[in-house]
Design a protein that fits this description.
3 domains, D-Maltodextrin-Binding Protein, domain 2, Arc Repressor Mutant, subunit A, alpha/beta
């Protein structure tokens, strides 16, 4: 198959989003017949039908939906390339992309990166941060989609190198008046009698909690699944469930929102985070500077390791 043309893919995405070739032409300042010709050539190129003509427009076929997903990813990558090159042209001499876990993003990473960028020597560096689950962070760094990853050290690093970052401690968050609120501390098993609000089931935290529940021949009951800690705290505040959340995330707003934080008396409640990368020797100068800054924020500038920090927990 010949290389796909980005202009045609951009028009294809526009047609799918608008459901109408004429309106897509108006958006792109191209006559509809020219778009139709490009789409016909695209269908010939991929060897399958991509759009179905309806009475008042068009809809993508199953193959069209698959191409739509890939096209959006390709266009996003092209936009990133253009942005990166423009940054160099305008004087931004460093570009660092970080993939980070929801915990790292919700806690200290944004502040640490901001402190790095506020230094005069780093004014020509741009940092992009994207939130992902730990396995996707490791995969993204390994495949070169980002220079640095920040995730829980329970993730299997494989051949990646790493340095220690910060740590946090999980606690049990319940609404005031909840039966668990009066206890000074809790074992994880005590929370299994109640429904939980959880992060996505393939996130590192949830995989670990499910494993510990299974070890007790119990099931972790999810009443609500959310994508971030802020949403989890809102659900707890509504009295719908309990949640295990880093104390560093929950504590600042707990009192104002009527939440009670109960210590989790488990050895695994304290979690350590790491900065991972493919090879320190291959990092760009900007990525090297940022990695050193983040590593120093832990109070430790330990040498990098080429072995995973721990592999006793699922990632």
């Amino acid at each position: 198959m010949r290389d796909l043309d980005l202009t045609t893919l951009r028009l294809f995405v526009s047609v799918c989003e608008l459901g109408n070739i004429a309106r897509a032409g108006e958006r792109a300042s191209i006559v509809g017949s020219a778009i139709s010709k490009r789409l016909a050539q695209l269908e010939d190129q991929v060897g399958t039908r991509l759009l179905v003509r309806k009475r008042h427009g068009v809809v993508p076929t199953a193959a069209g939906n698959t191409l739509l997903e890939h096209a959006r990813a390709m266009l996003d990558s092209a936009a990133r390339i253009e942005s990166d090159m423009q940054n160099f042209a305008t004087g931004a001499r460093g570009q660092v992309r970080i993939l980070a876990s929801v915990s790292a993003m919700a806690e200290s990473l944004a502040d640490d990166v901001a402190a790095f960028l506020q230094q005069p020597a780093h004014r020509t560096i741009q940092v992009d941060m994207e939130e992902r689950i730990s396995p996707d962070i490791v995969r993204g760094v390994r495949e070169g989609h980002a220079s640095l990853g920040v995730c829980w050290d329970a993730a299997d690093m494989g051949a990646l190198q790493w340095r220690p970052y910060r740590s946090d401690r999980l606690c049990v968050v319940v609404p005031r008046g909840h039966p668990l609120a009066a206890l000074p501390s809790l074992r994880f098993a005590q929370t299994l009698d109640y429904e939980h609000v959880s992060l996505p089931v393939n996130s590192a935290v949830q995989v670990m909690l499910q494993r510990h529940a299974a070890a007790r021949n119990r099931t972790l009951r999810h009443r609500v699944v959310v994508t971030n800690f802020e949403a989890a705290l809102r659900v707890v505040r509504a009295g719908l469930a309990v949640s295990l959340v880093p104390r560093e995330v929950a504590e600042p707003s707990a009192a104002a929102h009527g939440l009670q934080l109960v210590a989790l008396a488990e050895p695994w409640a304290e979690r350590r985070f790491i900065i991972c990368f493919r090879d320190e020797q291959l990092l760009s100068p900007a990525a090297q500077l940022l990695m050193e800054h983040l590593a120093a924020s832990t109070g430790s500038a330990a040498r990098p390791s080429d072995k995973p920090a721990r592999q006793d927990a699922a990632s």
